[in-house]
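To assess whether ligand presence alters the predicted conformation, the chain was also submitted together with zinc ion. Input:
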Amino acid sequence: MPMSQGYGAQSATSPLAPMSFERRETGPRDVRIEILYCGVCHSDLHQARNEWHSTIYPCVPGHEIVGRVVEVGKKVKKVKEGDIAAVGCMVGSCRECGSCRAGDEQYCEKGAVYTYNSEDPVSGGPTYGGYSTDIVVDKGFVVKVPSGMPLAETAPLLCAGITTYSPLKHFQVGRGTKLGVVGLGGLGHMAVKIGRAMGAHVVLFTTSPGKVEDAKKLGADDVVISTSEDAMGAWKRSLDFILDTVSAPHDLGAYLKLLRKDGTMCLVGLPGVPLPINAFHLLGQRVRLTGSSIGGVRETQEVLDFCFDHGIAAEIETIALGQINEAFERLLKNDVKYRFVIDMSRPR
Ligand code: NAP
Ligand code: ZN
């Protein structure tokens, strides 16, 4: 079996360290991709450290993958050797259930196969992600990168981009919508850019006064420091839709109060602990609280095309794979503008 070199965690408390592991042979439906860039999502950190209590070790994270196709199986027509292709958070699903047929593979009734930390239906072993030299993926889960897109800046679209685009589209955010985005991190900064491109009035809520100017440059019409009760009070009952991207425990009620009647708050951030809800905050204005998971494969292609058409890409800082532990620590300190991307060509 071909060997891949990557960085993985052996336990919740061990730092990521170099490891080699087997990738399956390129089957008839498979595409082998040499990884050029991989974004660093906060989910990678949550999972490497078992914060969601579901990690299979060893764990090689990474689900914002852009690379070069180096081998394709006989049945693959979609891409050819030498093409630039991308892989997001999923590498498989049943493809037969209602969700899969609707293009919502992330809601597969039998459970989607995630790019890492899932069982590989072909090999039976764990799936390993993009903090590695190469990956073998079923053609149904490979998307094409439009020619001319900056590759490193495209990688974060494979998770941060699709995870924010999908709910904004599903809940029909557009011209006339007052959109609140909570948190200016990897997901949040994409939500600001995409929400603005969709025509919404974007109000960014941040705990970091140092991000105010950036938020405006990225496309926020208004910026609110969420730690100030007075500043928050000024937005009471004013927003149509709120996308909450926060990775840590925080007060949902403070945001539910900002929705107008029948408004919707959608959680995409995934803190490792349950967050309390006060029923008064829901029924007072009949507001809805919902959540959204990544997006389907077709929609992932759509977000790449949408971003290309609108000249949107992520704001990134590139790192070498060997700097991943330092990057995780900086992510926790909120010290990234606004996504780390591993450049596999950089020496360790
Ligand atoms: P990130 O880059 O670390 O951004 C998170 C942001 O949340 C920070 O930049 C910060 O923004 C804010 N924040 C952090 N700690 C906070 C606290 N204690 N109180 C209030 N705000 C705080 O993370 P990310 O990669 O964007 O991911 C965000 C979350 O989405 C993670 O939980 C991740 O697992 C989840 N996620 C979910 C999906 C999905 O399918 N739904 C997909 C990908 C990621 P400010 O400095 O502006 O306050
Ligand atoms: Zn992610």
